[in-house]
Design a protein that fits this description.
- The chain is an alpha+beta fold.
- The protein has a domain at 5-50 and 92-152.
- It is built from two helices and four strands; from the N terminus they run αββββα.
- The strands form two sheets. A two-stranded antiparallel sheet has the order 1-2. A two-stranded antiparallel ribbon has the order 3-4.
- Strand 3 and strand 4 (87-91) form a beta hairpin.
- It is rod-shaped, with a radius of gyration of 29 Å.
- The protein starts with a helix and ends with a helix.
- Residues 119-153 are annotated as: Disordered.
- This is Prefoldin subunit alpha.
- Residues 124-153 have a biased composition (Low complexity).
- InterPro entries: PFD_alpha_archaea, Prefoldin, Prefoldin_subunit_alpha.
């Protein structure tokens, strides 16, 4: 009888757990990419609004809870833009566009970094899956050898 059979099962279980952890991490990273893309969409919408709105335009301002109020734009030369870290600054429309462009570029870079992390995890997952497949094949061979030995006895 083979004494190493339990070790192979333990190795398979460990590999399976590592693969599961990688899959969970990849799902989290995919969710992060989706959130970053939503942020990009919001920036695109803000930039489009800056392009088409004029002083005197009527807009709907969100109050929260899916409630809106109509308001008139007093001055398109006064745009308040979040700079990050809880800070905001009043800027003219062109400078606000520049700030939004910088934000979009930063988001592009972050998405690229996260995609790279996902790619690395996919490679690691593939390698672990190959290891698991080899371990499973070795276990099957050991079981067949053990059965053969029992039949020979």
């Amino acid at each position: 009888m083979s004494l190493g059979g339990g070790g192979g099962q333990q190795q398979l279980q460990q590999l399976s757990q590592e693969i599961q952890a990688i899959e969970e991490e990849m799902e989290e990273l995919e969710a992060e990419v989706e959130a970053l893309r939503e942020e990009q969409t919001e920036i695109d919408e803000a930039q489009e609004a800056l392009d088409v709105l004029e002083t005197g335009s009527t807009v709907q301002v969100p109050l929260g809870g899916d409630a809106y109020v109509r308001a008139e734009v007093q001055d398109m030369d006064e745009v308040v833009v979040s700079l990050g870290g809880g800070y905001a600054a009043e800027q003219d429309a062109d400078d606000a566009q520049d700030v939004l462009d910088e934000k979009r570029e930063a988001l592009d870079g972050r998405i690229e970094d996260v995609r790279s992390e996902i790619s690395e995890l996919q490679e690691e997952q593939s390698a672990l899956e190959q290891q698991a497949q080899k371990a499973q094949q070795q276990m099957m061979q050991q079981q067949m050898q053990a059965q053969q030995q029992q039949q020979d006895e």
